[in-house]
Amino acid sequence: MRRRRLYLKMQEKLTGIALGSVKHSDRHDIATLYTLERGRVAVAVAAGGGRRRRTPLMPLSVVELNVSGRGGSEVMRASGIAPLEVWRTLYVDPAKMAVVMFMAEFIGKLTRDSGPDRPMWTYVAESVRLLDATASASGVANFPIAFLASLTPFAGIAPDTRGYAPGRIFDMRAGTYTDAHARAGGDLFGGPAAEAVRMLSRITFANAGRFRFSREERRQTLEELLRYYSIHLPGLGGLKSPAVLTEVLG
């Protein structure tokens, strides 16, 4: 007699931040969310109708939803999706929308194999609220830099800048200052670059708009922050959205 493998059907209410969705069928999309209770999850949601097909979960929307599935299932079915926040500017401001797409892509990669993490989830949710409320163009343009710099403690990779002194070198792999000599193209930064690391440790969402970056300085700073993350957290490479940020934010 063939044995049947039994799975218990589970039902749960989750609070999540939407990261993106892909078409699964004419009736359903598969959406990825970063949830407070489970970390990153994939759920099947009913697809929007009409000629302009839209998912009910826009990137970085914060929602409450019911999920159900069977033990061992990777994708759960979602229902009762209700917004917990109403964003007023994120989806109508092209500059903010570029930042939204960057944050959603980065968070998706960062949390790919992670479980629930209340401090990080709370930080991300608060970051989205602050982006929605940011009024100055320079504050929006520098927001990705402030986001990445302020996220390092929650990711467990905060650099130790207490050892800074003029002439010292910053070692990206050790995350500390050293007296070694910087080498071109390596992971050791001296001179103005070493001082810039200490400067970035002071950037916040509140003061980000006061930092004056040229287009090239902003691009390079974001690139080096992403490299710092990829050194300490392999698997964060290959992001597509930074190129869009550079084009839109200048």
Q: Going across the major beta sheet, what is the strand order?
A: 1-2-3-5-4
Secondary-structure element series: EEEEEHHHHEEEHHH
Strand percentage lies at 15-25%
Instruction: Extract low-pLDDT stretches.
Output: 1-8
The best one-word shape is globular
Count of beta strands: 8
Radius of gyration: 21 Å
The helical percent reads 25-40%
What is the total domain count? 2
Keywords for this entry:
alpha+beta; OB fold (Dihydrolipoamide Acetyltransferase, E2P); 2 domains; five-stranded mixed barrel; three-stranded antiparallel β-sheet; 35% helix; globular; disordered N terminus
Describe the protein.
This protein is α+β, with helices and mostly antiparallel strands and 250 residues long. The protein folds into 2 domains: 75 residues, Nucleic acid-binding proteins (OB fold (Dihydrolipoamide Acetyltransferase, E2P)); 115 residues. It is built from 7 helices and 8 strands, in the order βββββααααβββααα. The strands form 2 sheets. It has a 5-stranded mixed barrel.
